[in-house]
Amino acid sequence: MHGCTWNYMSKLDQLPIEEQSVIEQFIDALWMESGLSQNTLAAYRNDLAGFGLWLQSVSNTLLNVNTSDIQGFLAAEYKAGKQGRSSARLVSTLKRFYQYQLRERQIDTDPSELVDMPKLDKPLPKIISEEQIDDLLNAPNASENLGVRDIAMLETLYATGLRVSELVNLQMSQLNLDPGVVRVIGKGGKERLVPLGEAAVDAISHYISVARNELLKGHGLSNAVFVTRRGGAMSRQAFWYLIKRYAAAVGIDDSLISPHTLRHAFASHLLNHGADLRVVQMLLGHSDISTTQIYTHIADQRLKTLYHAHHPRA
């Protein structure tokens, strides 16, 4: 019966009374300590009932298990199709349950201590095409001050791969338009120099000479590069709203839009055109290159798609 699968939902009553009591005492403690919702508590209850039922099949009980028992149960669940986040939640439930039992001195050692949390694959970010980027960059009205500002912001993001928070917090002292670089203060206060590119330099220069002072009229001075009609720096949320509005205006699918849309496009388009991964890592300000490597998977996917679309024997 080791490999059998169970319908664990609402199956607590299939367990012996003493096993039900062990689970319910833990659930009560969770509610008292953490104030979790009924749905979350039900998920804990069902996970533990499932483990209890599996233990019945191998003649064991919840408070008499070892690491091998837990690994055997997880293997059976994996074979039955429970993977990814469901598997991670299950491990988390068991760890919390046995940490509680150890704290309450119902067991002498924690059998879940050596059980590793499954590694979850990070979903690949959705990338908009270079053609869609062109449409997005051309969406603002270049005859209005706000449109001139928005073009400069969009061009800067796509040219540099800045985080939106880094963009909206950008100060005039961080710009050096002659050599075309921007000094970025990233996570943890780390600084990096990022080249702007000709299009971004032109857009920023035009914005500063034409629109910025007009937007600041009657509001005094501001050190922020990109300012609103009220004279202050733009918020991250406000800029996120602008991107969504411009994307909708040019027919870009809403599912492709996120606060990091242009950052993702910057990285993947660089790699598509042959940039070195280490260079992209430095430009993005990633401390670990494994964070940057997600974009190589996107580039590989694109190459496979192009191959299958165009090779006569694909």
Show unreliable segments.
Answer: 1-9
Percent helix: 55-70%
Mass-distribution shape: elongated
CATH topology of the largest domain: hpI Integrase, Chain A
Major pleated sheet: 3 strands, antiparallel
Structural class from helices and strands? mainly alpha
H/E element string? HHHHHHHEEEHHHHHH
**Radius of gyration in whole Å, from Cα?**
27 Å
Mean pLDDT: 84
Query: How many beta-strand segments?
Result: 3
Q: What is the CATH superfamily of the largest domain?
A: Intergrase catalytic core
Tell me the span between the first and last alpha carbons. 45 Å
Query: Number of helical segments?
Result: 13
CATH class of the largest domain: Mainly Alpha
- By CATH, the architecture of the largest domain is named Orthogonal Bundle
Beta-strand content estimate: under 5%
Number of domains: 2
Strand order of the largest sheet: 1-2-3
Which SSEs are present, and which pair or pack?
Blueprint: H1 17-34, H2 38-57, H3 67-79, H4 84-103, H5 130-137, H6 145-160, H7 164-168, E1 175-176, E2 181-185, E3 191-195, H8 198-216, H9 236-249, H10 261-272, H11 277-284, H12 289-292, H13 294-310
Antiparallel strand pairs: 1-2, 2-3
